[in-house]
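call fold(seq) -> tokens
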Amino acid sequence: MKGKKLSNILTLGFALFAMFFGAGNLLLPPLIGVEVGSNYLIAILAFGLTGIILPFTGILSVVFSGDSFNDLGNRVNKNIAKILGTIIMICIGPLIAIPRTAATTFEVAIKPFFPETNPIWGAILFFTITLILAIRPSKVVDIIGNYLTPILLVLLTLLIIIGIIHPTSVLYPSKLTMVDSFSKGFIEGYQTLDVLASVIFAGIIVSAAHNKGYTEPKNKSQIVIIAGILSTSCLLIVYGGLIYLGATSGNSNPDISRAELLVDISINILGHYGLIAIALCMTFACLTTAIALITAVGTFFSELTKSKLSYTFLVVLCVLISFILSIKGVDEIINFAYPPLAFVYPITITLVIYIVLFGKFIKSKTPYIYALFASTIVAILSLLKLLGNFDASTIHNLNKIPFFEYDLGWIVPSIIGFLIGILIDKFRK
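ret:
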């Protein structure tokens, strides 16, 4: 019995790791390492907060609330759950994350070997495989956890260990301050999309645990949380290793793309075999994430429309939209992604953190609604700032909001909103 439980934990934990670990998770850390240099430890800590701790908190928020994101959203308001869920699904689905997986696979795993290949053919191949594997959602977790992830982890671990033992360059003093290095790592963690994905992936893992016989709420929560700890531990090792590889890469080309940097590091560490290893890593990482995301999008919108739109139709539609957008290229997708993420991230993080910290003690919806309202206002201001709608004077005034200049302006207003909600409840009583 214990052996079976351990096997299930490994399957679920590795599956969750692979769902999280996609294109951005491979591309972002090395560039952070290059930019922060000797401050790599503080960058690892900061990136770990938004790329590891917050996603794990997202899993906890769903587990503490029920079985899916809808249960989490309903702790505040049913309509908010539908609206926020739709925005999250569009961002981590066909708008940003899924196209990025295909574009990254082409630039890292296909283009270096076949430089004349048209990206359209790479996208066709990628989405054909993804569609075949995503069309049967009941098999997704087992396929990812039992087969694809172990290969991915072995290859990444090999690359990181050799890179640490035989670094290609020395650590240069950082040009950034400790605060700037922390901010860099923290904000780049947004681009992984893992906080947004965590509240969706949690439902997939909970469902998989249920299918494996963990039907009692306590047992189901326990195995999902342990699987989450396993996946986050793997993420910490890999993220830390990749940031260090970037910091010791010796690369000083300011115009190098994220994909080119990753390929360059791999070749410097393992030679021609490094190119093959990183190509396989990227292929498996992007496939596993794309399969999970397409499955989640199809399931979410099928349930939202009460099966008026079938799962199969939604999966095919998601694949088609993602295919069209993936041809733009990785860097263009990442640059396009930041404004919508800057808007939706503070709202999602507020919901996740406050439910995990206070969900067991404060059952009223009012404090959570006010906290979300405050975060939404700041998120709108941040979005308008990014889009260039404010002059220097307005930005100067906005920076008076604590942490606003570091894109963390939602923290204090959400706390104030939460406290106001509590006081309103007390006056009502």
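The chain has two domains: 2-327, 328-429.
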